[in-house]
Amino acid sequence: MSNAIYATLARQQGLMQEMQVVSNNLANSSTTGYKTDKAIFAEYLVNSGPGEMSLSMGALAGHSFEMEQGGLNVTGGQFDLAVQGDGFFSIETPQGTRLTRAGHFQLSSEGTLIDTIGNNVLGAGGGPINIPPEARQVSISGDGTISVDGEQLEQIGIVTADGALMRDSNTYFSAPGGFKTATEFSVVQGALEQSNVSPVLEVARMIEVQRAYEAGQTLLEREDQRIGQLISTVRER
User: Fold this and answer.
1) What confidence tens digit (pLDDT) does each residue in 139-164 have?
2) Within 13 Å, how many C-alpha atoms sit on residue 19's CB side?
3) DSSP per-residue string spanning 84-141
4) Which residues share a beta bridge with 147?
5) Phi-psi region for residue 49, left (φ > 0), alpha (ψ -120 to 50) or beta?
6) What is the pTM of this model?
7) Which of 45, 121, 150, 204 could join 54 via S-S bond, C-beta 3.0 to 4.6 A?
């Protein structure tokens, strides 16, 4: 197989991976708290053999996330919360603590504050948040302090990653380097943060990737024809 085919196949694979990222962004353009994903590619050199020039290849090296603030959708829900500024809600999952900007919360049958999956929302002290069953009015201030019928009860834990973030799911992030208490934030009660995906930009990128993939496919077909013609010429001699 020629070097041109090797290089083009690596490029086609990268384009397919980027198309998957773009498609996932579009699919989550209306998902609460979703952050736009960007594919990061890196170049590496492959030894082509003794006396041959090295071959430059590319591969997916990782992901980065656009963390810009999404718009606020005012719902009026008592346990719908949005974070403005830095920080994430901390959620207790079977895999460990995860961070999210999706603040559509509710109460479990036991009175524990949970997310839509049923995982506990953690307080500033790292434990679950329990709301008394007799509570009539629950208010949450900008610093995350929960007051029940005028009495302070608990504070919602708002944290930031101490290092890089890794996406676990569409709205969950893990922080391999740990996390720390956020300082520059404000919690808004009765609102949800919308996805920060720009559908127009993502569609434009999808078209660009598709055209690049089609061009690569054309190159592969022409190279295959060239090699076929070369083999036929050698056989006829």
Assistant:
1) 999 999 999 998 999 999 999 999 88
2) 14
3) EES-EEEEEETTEEEEES--B-EE-TTSBEE-TTSPEEBBTTSSB-B--TT---EEE-
4) 139, 152
5) left
6) 0.81
7) 45
